[in-house]
């Protein structure tokens, strides 16, 4: 058994000055016990996930527009830091496909230094979100919103891969989606059959290997087999026909190390450096990257927490969402100082980690070490990986993340309002960006939700002219107005509006609120406006059965003092009896006498 006490001291449960949970996943791991068998399971899982993360990290960095080593450095640094400081035991953090849509425009406008700085600022935002305990707000984002923008991101990613998958030559890729499609269409005559065959072969291997050879795929990840075979095939084709050129990582990317040009990925570990370069970090640079950093932070939080929730469902465990945001923030703060781009929880790698038998966050640490080992030992071999093969890999990733089944299901069986939110988020993500889509989607979904909730609030007026049968006997001059449902700003005006139709022969209105669970400021204003109109019409009001929450609001508003024509009764029956007495007095019926509104037998202030 490993020594727990010294390790627990490294991971305090709370930051004392802020009282915020941190590193709860590691703390739970040591507190529950960690032995050699668990470490062997984590090591094996880390090797499997590291092999999967290696090509993905390179492909995602290339799609963003930066050299592939930046993706590898992200997996190494963020994979270790977030695992040790985050709130999920099984989460694997690194570059993800969802970030491509946001990071590619940043890299195009501001270069690598701007991209790293934006990731650093996003890390600070994520850390602040975790400290503010905003982790559970993810549950308030409707499913059609997340499905819509995820499908939109998958569509954009797939479109971007067509350039390398078909070997197209586009001098400068525009920023907007429609312009990208136009540029790719204009370059269609440059399509390369060898590149297309490499991409197609990679896609077929990735899709068919798990089906045809499941035992082999469980031992060796399909991406490793597919990219290895694609690389060997491309190299063999070039040897047999030298004029046949298939672009690879080595032919596209070069680095200068100690005065020597290195093809592909340099055989160097992540080296500390300032993310913003030698020019320094100015207030203007922070301002220009502010919106980009906010977008990175929002998407990172959403994707990481969704991945952690799914991991909980696969394992039966629970993660700490605030701790996960804190760990993710720390990881994104540290990674840019080592050349790492923005990182978040990677669902596919997390699921692979769980299926491979991971027991603790140390599996993610092992995965990062596997990627580091590949950089230090196998970097020259990675230079032979064809760009078309990486594009084929990302096309499969885009297909898997497209949420196509959920997308079709929502369109087929969900209410029309959900379908509208889904299509709006999808279209806005494709045409504009994720921030616009999520912001619009959440607002639209909230408005539609309020409309549906407002429709649940019903009212009914019963008096001598209504013609409706009532389970309560109504005395002459008495009207009964029943309200059922919350009186909030979406429903208050409609619920209270019908009171103006009370007939002139009704002298007392019994307002039944026994089925009103809550009332907000707008509902109170609407109620008081209705009471004022009834007073102007010389009608008295009996409020019956307010539940505890509305009753507290009435007491704080001093409703009795503000409206001397208003009475309270506990039940509808008591209210109707009091109303009958008041109406008889108002109509001067024989044998009746005026009743003081303060009489304790019927009045309940």
Please report the number of helical segments: 24
Instruction: Supply Rg.
Output: 33 Å
- Helical residue percent? 55-70%
Order of strands, widest sheet:
7-8-9-10-11
Summarize model confidence as the mean pLDDT. Answer: 85
Q: How many strand elements? A: 11
Instruction: Count up the domains.
Output: 2
Name the structural class. Answer: alpha/beta
Report strand %: 5-15%
* N-to-C span: 67 Å
Which stretches are low in confidence, meaning pLDDT under 50 for 5 or more residues running?
1-23, 589-605
Please tell me what the overall shape is.
elongated
**Major sheet:** 5 strands, mixed
Features:
605 residues, 2 domains, 5-stranded mixed β-sheet, alpha/beta, 61% helix, Transcription Regulator spoIIAA, disordered C terminus
Describe the structure in your own words.
- There is one protein chain.
- Helices cover 61% and strands 7% of the residues.
- It is an alpha/beta fold and 605 residues long.
- The chain has two domains: 20-267 and 285-446, no CATH class; 458-587, Transcription Regulator spoIIAA.
- The strands form four sheets. The chain has a five-stranded mixed β-sheet with strand order 7-8-9-10-11, with helices on both faces. Strands 1-2 form a two-stranded antiparallel ribbon. A two-stranded antiparallel ribbon has the order 3-6.
- Helix 3 packs across helix 15, helix 4 crosses helix 13 (321-334) and helix 12 (283-315) crosses helix 13 (321-334).
- The longest helix is centred in the middle third of the chain and has 33 residues, at 283-315.
- The termini are far apart.
